[in-house]
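4.2 Preliminary Data

To establish feasibility before requesting continued support, the project team ran the inverse folding procedure on a target of 174 residues. The structure was first converted into the token representation described in Section 3, and no sequence information of any kind was made available to the design step. The complete token record follows.
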């Protein structure tokens, strides 16, 4: 009988913990995301959907802009996870590569701009702590982290784009 009662308590406890997590999200990141989404959509309406589409299409034509400037600007201005929505302005074949580039940049930007992904700041701070113990400057680490991040996202974007196009061709979709 105790086994069944313990199982029932553990079972409901799982959902109670899930409820606590949900409430923490509802009181934390969700209002921020909803406000940010609203602001971005309002800005797009003010600028004009057609103009935003033209800017994105212009950037999409240039592989360097597509996998460096767009992801960096998206992560800087929209932060994680809203940054990925900028991919909606790109043609379908570029969306996976843009996402790969943007998601790969949410850590390298932290040293200079911690607002971009504050939930993951502990990763950068762990590295920074080791650098501080060696009495080395953090500014240089942050700049190098950023530069290497831009190089890596460009490489990842190009590789992912090539893989995507290859898979689309294999399925006669490109």
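Position-by-position output of the design step:
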């Amino acid at each position: 009988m105790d086994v069944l009662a313990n199982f029932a308590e553990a079972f409901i406890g799982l959902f109670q913990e899930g409820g606590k997590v949900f409430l923490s999200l509802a009181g934390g990141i969700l209002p921020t995301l909803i406000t940010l989404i609203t602001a971005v959509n309002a800005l797009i309406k003010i600028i004009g959907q057609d103009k935003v589409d033209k800017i994105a299409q212009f950037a999409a034509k240039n592989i360097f802009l597509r996998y460096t400037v767009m992801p960096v600007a998206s992560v800087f201005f929209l932060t994680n996870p809203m940054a990925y929505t900028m991919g909606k302005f790109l043609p379908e074949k570029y969306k996976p590569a843009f996402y790969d580039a943007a998601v790969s940049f949410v850590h390298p930007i932290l040293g200079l701009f911690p607002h971009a992904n504050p939930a993951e700041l502990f990763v950068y701070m762990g590295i920074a702590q080791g650098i501080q113990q060696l009495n080395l400057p953090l500014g240089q680490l942050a700049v190098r982290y950023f530069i290497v991040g831009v190089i890596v996202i460009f490489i990842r974007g190009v590789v992912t784009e090539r893989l995507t196009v290859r898979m689309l061709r294999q399925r006669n979709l490109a």
